[in-house]
Amino acid sequence: MALPKLNTQTFTLEIPSTDEKVKFRPFLVKEEKILLQAQEGEDKEMVDALQDIVSNCTFNKVDISKLPSFDVEYIFMKIRAKSVGEKVKLQVLCPDDKETKVPVTIDLSKIEVEVDDKHTNKIELTKDVSCIMKYPTMRTFIGKNMADAKAEDAISLITDCIHQIIDGKETYEANSLSKKEINEFIENLTQAQFAGMQSFFTTMPKLKHIVNVTNPKTKKKGKVTLEGMQSFF
After folding, report:
1. Helix (H) or strand (E) run with residue 182 in it
2. Angle at the Cα of 108 from the Cα atoms of 106 and 112, rounded to 5 degrees
3. Are strands 11-14 and 21-24 parallel, antiparallel or unpaired?
4. Distance, CA of 150 to CA of 224 (rounded, Å)
5. What is the pLDDT of residue 41?
6. Closest residue by Cα to residue 105 from 86, 90, 93, 94
7. Among 35, 121, 200, 218, which is 20 to 30 Å from 157 by CA?
8. Short-list 198, 202, 156, 151, CA closest to 179
9. Burial (CB count <10 Å: 0-12, 13-18, 19+), residue 6
10. The pTM is what?
């Protein structure tokens, strides 16, 4: 006699970048096991685990290899909230002395993707030359240490995310150019132009939440901004 198969409740979310509605379910024990194993490995293993979990839990309707990273983080956040609980307890650093940590409780169901008012995917370099950018996927970040702001990592990320280069009436599709050509184009930018390219990433949509804290030592109140999926776990 076959063992019973348990029914799993389903929910609905909207993908931030497209407003497409998709159904999802909480992750199961087998998927939690995949996630725990991936946390001990390399970045690629974590991305592979996220891809498998998001794909399985959205009934193979979502392909994270094609989605912007913030979409994947949002979807995974929603799946996790329904899987292990919407409330999580975190330790955050008080902004006044930058050394005292205080406990806070975050409701994951309230976390949304926010867009900076100054954000644009068209970067004006000169009066005639501009770049149209595309959002990085989870795999785009593999092997890049953006926390250290290394020049080669920044250039590599920008290279991967250029969609078009416009020169007056001429438009160059990035997929028709070699990486060497695009790298040379970026390396010949001025510092101001390069900063403009980087602003695409610093202002792009991201998971964001602000919490109010009070330092128990100084009694001073402050606000702490949590950004990105890693901040909530």
Report:
1. helix 179-187
2. 115
3. antiparallel
4. 26
5. 66
6. 90
7. 35
8. 156
9. exposed
10. 0.85
The tokens describing 66, both together, are 């094609």
Instruction: State the DSSP code for 66.
Output: S
Residue appearing with tokens 């101001």? 192
| Tens of pLDDT, residues 160-209 | 999 999 999 999 999 999 999 999 999 999 999 999 999 999 899 999 89
pLDDT, averaged in runs of 10, over the chain (233 residues): 71 92 89 76 78 89 86 91 88 91 90 90 95 91 59 85 94 93 93 93 91 92 87 71
Tell me the two tokens of residue 142.
Answer: 């593999």
Q: Which residue, chain included where needed, has tokens 């501009």?
A: 130
- What does the block give as tokens for 38? 């991936």
Q: What do you get for the CA distance between the two ends of the chain, in Å?
A: 41
